[in-house]
Amino acid sequence: MKEWFGWHFLQKDRRLRWGTQEVVETGKTYTVKGKLEMCYNGLHASARAIDALLYAPGPIVCRVELLGKRIDEEDKSVAQKRRVIVMADATQVLHEFSCHCATAALCLAEIKDKRYWHAIEAKWSWLRGDITDAELALARSAARSAVSDGPGDPGWDAAWYVAWAVARDHARDAAGAAARAAAFSALLDTVRNEQNDLLEDMLSELLKLPKLPKRLVRKYAK
What we know:
Layout: E1 5-10, E2 29-31, E3 43-45, H1 49-54, E4 60-72, E5 77-89, H2 91-108, H3 114-127, H4 133-145, H5 154-165, H6 174-185, H7 189-207, H8 214-221
Antiparallel strand pairs: 1-4, 2-5, 3-5, 4-5
Helix pairs in contact: 2-3, 2-5, 2-6, 2-7, 3-4, 3-5, 4-5, 5-6
């Protein structure tokens, strides 16, 4: 098979969730035995970072290569071997990405309520260290309570949920908040593609990877 590069996320302790549960190390190749089965047996990764994010158990991002026999699905692949090229803690990047996605969701839904916007502004302030966890929690509570004043349509519900999710303050919530914000703001395929380009650029900068032309990224995704 031709070269296959992709993205994979680990939990904060960098341990494999199944099998040996060993600590993952950069440069090492991991192997599984037995018949490959999507979601049950094998080493997984996604060609696009936005897809890998949906399955992320934590904020540790890895750029990986899948080797050996492989099964592909639309948003993920599974193989006998997975080589870890480079990895880093993406907590900060994922929090920032969730803010960008939440902003897009509010714009797409044309939400004017300041409580939702304040939740995003509070998250940026928190990331800069300008406000405390308690102050961020207040902004989150305000965004959550604002739903009772809304019209109840899907666009409104998506926007309030995103604004609430983006205000999560714990490191373990970074991946979850980013994934939810991206999912709810991706009302169009073009938006989803734009999100992926942004996320991959942010992660590539974190990992000090050269930015691949998008045509090559798409090639590897096939």
